[in-house]
Specification:
The protein has two domains: 32 residues, no CATH class; 54 residues, no CATH class. It is 65% helix and 5% strand. The protein is built from four helices and two strands; from the N terminus they run H-H-H-E-E-H. A two-stranded antiparallel sheet has the order 1-2. Helix 3 crosses helix 4. The chain starts with a helix and ends with a helix.
């Protein structure tokens, strides 16, 4: 019995979309955002408030462990988070 590759790809694509929506619309914050989301926001907030010494940027999980370039990415996430918090 030969399995058609296009059928497997279509089924896996639809299953991935379905499971993605289930994961996105879960209301629990740790499952929705992940365990590091809050840490990313805290680190970005430290930088936004003026902390430029990389060794002093911390979160509730401890000192920052990501490379400095990731902090710029987290800063944009922080801005989006602030905008959505104000919208609620």
């Amino acid at each position: 019995m030969k399995i058609r590759k296009d059928l497997v790809l279509r089924v896996s694509f639809v299953a991935n979309i379905f499971l993605g929506f289930v994961y996105i619309y879960d209301v629990s914050s740790t499952r929705r955002y992940g365990s590091s989301y809050i840490s990313y926001l805290q680190e970005a907030q430290s930088y936004y408030l003026g902390e430029t010494d990389y060794k002093m940027i911390t979160s509730s999980k401890g000192p920052i462990k990501d490379p400095a370039g990731h902090l710029w990415h987290h800063l944009w996430i922080y801005f989006v988070h602030l905008y959505t918090i104000r919208a609620e």
